[in-house]
Design brief:
heterodimer, A: 109 residues, 6-stranded mixed β-sheet, 11 strands, 57% strand, B: 114 residues, mainly beta, 4-stranded antiparallel β-sheet, 0% helix
Chain lengths: 109, 114
């Protein structure tokens, strides 16, 4: 079956760095997405990886290892506004998205 | 530019009642989707559409119907609501269904079925 695993909740300190991991099992693979979702709001797109390696976008970076079925989202210089859920989603061979349950990130002062 | 707009934002229904959720997008996107989001679970696809006049079933289509009569609108109907359909519903759209397919989501519709 197809499956996405990510931690349910993580806590970090303002100004620090946090890494949110995601492992996936899909029938075929057409890319890995990360979305941010603040409480009570819509998910918004953060990143897309289809090739192995690190993609950096400001304070946020996303890494992909296709051979390991693994990705992580790295958030640097954490700010209070980064408190949100982070959703990992993998696209299978039929271009269907398989979503993880999300990681709730709590930022403490 | 409004993006994706969902109405209503909140609704309470009694078991057996019917209702329609409306999704409108102004980005000229071909693809539109209806998802539900429940605590502890990933987003689950209910139905989707790859263009005006087309619809297809997703992962959890039972108890729902959809229509895409106009390119900009995608309606989700519940014919006879059940408590199991209590959820937050998100509409999304994208320009196409290819790999780098970024979804734009609406703000969500919170539905409670008593």
């Amino acid at each position: 079956g197809q499956n996405i695993d990510q931690p349910t909740e993580m806590t970090a300190t303002e100004g620090a760095i946090v890494q949110i991991n995601c492992t996936y099992q899909t029938s075929g693979f057409n890319g890995l997405f990360w979305y941010q979702q603040h409480a009570g709001e819509a998910p918004t797109f953060l990143s897309y990886n289809v090739l192995d390696g690190l993609e950096e976008k400001g304070r946020f970076s996303s890494f992909l290892s296709r051979s390991k079925g693994y990705s992580y989202l790295l958030l640097k210089e954490l700010q209070m506004k980064d408190s949100a859920s982070y959703l990992c989603a993998a696209m299978d061979s039929n271009y269907q998205l398989i979503w993880g349950a999300g990681t709730k990130l709590i930022i403490k002062p | 530019n409004a993006g994706v707009t969902q109405t209503p934002k909140f609704r309470v229904l009694k078991t057996g009642q019917s209702m329609t959720l409306l999704c409108a997008q102004d980005m000229n996107h071909e693809y539109m989707y209806w998802y539900r989001q429940d605590p502890g679970m990933g987003l689950r696809l209910i139905h989707y559409s790859v263009g005006e006049g087309t619809t297809a079933k997703g992962e959890v289509p039972d108890g729902y119907n959809v229509s895409r009569l106009k390119k900009q609108n995608f309606l989700l109907g519940l014919e006879s609501a059940a408590p199991s359909q209590t959820s937050v519903y998100f509409c999304a759209s994208s320009s196409d269904g290819s790999g780098a397919n970024v979804l734009t989501f609406g703000a969500g519709s919170r539905l409670t079925v008593l």
